[in-house]
Amino acid sequence: MSDTPLIGVLALQGDVREHLIALASANALARPVRRPEELAEVDGLVIPGGESTTMSKLAVLFGMMDPLRERVGAGMPVYGTCAGMILLAEKILDPRSGQETVGGIDMIVRRNAFGRQNESFEAAVEVGGVEGGPVDGVFIRAPWVESVGAGTEVIAEHGGHIVAVRQKNALATSFHPELTGDHRVHALFVDMVRAVN
Question: What b/e sequence results for 104-129 when a residue is b if at least 16 CB atoms lie within 10 Å of its CB, and e otherwise?
């Protein structure tokens, strides 16, 4: 593989375009992924924010859930933001009926933990592995991580709650760095993809 990895953005629902822009600015080739054959071609995948229950149901409907679980389980680098963090959790507190997860990170996540849409906010967040000072995090109906397993590294907290984690090739943030113009978290993920490929 060249030094420019091909990274997909799961394009079932959510803020896909912003992630494509952030990945391109972090020196990756980026493309939307909607079908299993497109998933098979990428070196890594971003699962964007959106509505986690809807994304889960669409992934099942489009025949993507099992291929996602297989690739993530086999070590494909994956990065989930907000709803993407929920989909990467092994367990969700208070899941909606029929909500499934891809898994990949040994953590328990609480949906909408920071409040409703009108309680959205921005905050400076120090993220382990990201140099150059705090990242500007946008929290929109954001989850937080209630607890992590032994193999999961906590890389950021806000207000006493875990908001970013990493486990091997999987990364997750409860906030949206793609909405800020600061692409350092995406650059961290691109480096993770390069290290595997």
Answer: bbbbebbbbbbeeeeeeeeeebebeb
Q: What is the pLDDT of residues 113-172, one digit of tens each?
A: 887 767 789 999 999 999 999 999 999 989 999 999 999 999 999 999 999 999 999 999
Q: What are phi and psi of 93, to 5 degrees?
A: -75, 145
18: amino acid identity, one letter: E
8 A C-beta contact, residue 118 and residue 73? no
Count of H helices and E strands in the chain? 6, 12
Letter string b/e over residues 61-98, b meaning 16 or more CB atoms within 10 A of that residue's CB:
eeebbebbbebbeeebbbbbbbbbbbbbbbebeebeee
Instruction: State how far the Cα of 52 lies from the Cα of 95, in Å rounded to an integer.
Output: 10
Amino acid 1: pLDDT: 47
Tell me what percent of the chain is helix, strand and coil, each rounded to the nearest 5: 30, 30, 40
Annotated active-site positions, please?
A: 82, 176, 178
Q: What's the length of the chain? A: 197
Nearest-angstrom CA–CA distance, 99 and 108: 14
With H, G, I as helix, E, B as strand and everything else as coil, classify residue 45. Answer: strand
Pairing, β 78-81 against β 44-47: parallel
